Amino acid sequence: MEPGCYEVAPGVHRVPLQMPADGLGAVNVYALETPDGLALVDGGWRVDTTFGEMERALRRIGHGTEQIHDIYVTHVHRDHYTFAVELRRRHGSRVHLGVAEADGLAAVGALGSNVPTNSLHELRRAGAPVLADTVEALTAAEPFYPSDWEKPDHWLAAGPLRIGQHAVDVVHTPGHTKGHMVFHDTQRGLLFSGDHVLPSITPSIGFELGEWDLPLGRYLDSLSGLLDRPDSQLLPAHGDPTPSVHVRVEELLVHHDRRFAAMRDALATLGPVTASAVAEAIPWTRRERPFATLDPFNRMIATCETLAHLDTLVDRGQITVRSRGDRDVFAVA
Ligand SMILES: [Zn+2]
């Protein structure tokens, strides 16, 4: 995606901001024209170039960053939250974040590093202690900026919200993170979906600090929940907008059914094993890549994703689990 500012509906502009060294390429921030200036949905990832990039993009529609009065952030991940805090620092913009992200945000501040401690704990439960050590060393070496993680001005709850002249529903969609929110303008038929619904990839599940509480089960419930709402244009945080939220939600539900089946089949073939062994036995990404070809960070995401599916199958009574020391061993029932 070329940098710039793309109108997706009257007065609503998609601003793709480059992301450093990440397979996703860009994060979409949406700039909404209001009588007072601009509101943003999602803030972007604060790196040294982000501010200039945002200024250049907004200038194309005759605006400046100083006109941004409110920023509604879908979830606490750094590619969505940290530049919102930077805009507040520069211009006093108000930052809004889902109330169920409060614990995760406090935990990042208390930890003081990018080490994903809870995911590492789950990796060890998944039988991948060596991978956990590798990711720990890599992330501990990354720079960490405490000022990226200052609190929002306002904690968002689910319910009605006014952005400029438009009524928007704030919808709690836990799964990708506990406090993920999407913003639904039903009148104009626009759903700002954050990472909850993405057009060409599936979001990671439960990659956050805090307790692991069946994140995939919550994610699937949050997905189905969108089918009970009017269909709308999908305005995702990564990738291109598409005409129908419902079409993509149906595809994602089918995708996860296939993944459940593939993991159950792998378990049936392998006998009782850890989530790590199941992850190594199935293909990954749209390109069906072998697990071993993924980088350590994506091996962690893949392993946690497998664990999330297996935990859900246990919850549904379709497979069993036994603890062996600090790892869980799964088997077909
Ligand atoms: Zn995210």
TrEMBL record:
<dbReference type="InterPro" id="IPR001279">
    <property type="entry name" value="Metallo-B-lactamas"/>
</dbReference>
<dbReference type="InterPro" id="IPR036866">
    <property type="entry name" value="RibonucZ/Hydroxyglut_hydro"/>
</dbReference>
<dbReference type="InterPro" id="IPR050662">
    <property type="entry name" value="Sec-metab_biosynth-thioest"/>
</dbReference>
<feature type="domain" description="Metallo-beta-lactamase">
    <location>
        <begin position="26"/>
        <end position="238"/>
    </location>
</feature>
<dbReference type="InterPro" id="IPR036388">
    <property type="entry name" value="WH-like_DNA-bd_sf"/>
</dbReference>
<dbReference type="Pfam" id="PF00753">
    <property type="entry name" value="Lactamase_B"/>
</dbReference>
<protein>
    <submittedName>
        <fullName>Glyoxylase, beta-lactamase superfamily II</fullName>
    </submittedName>
</protein>
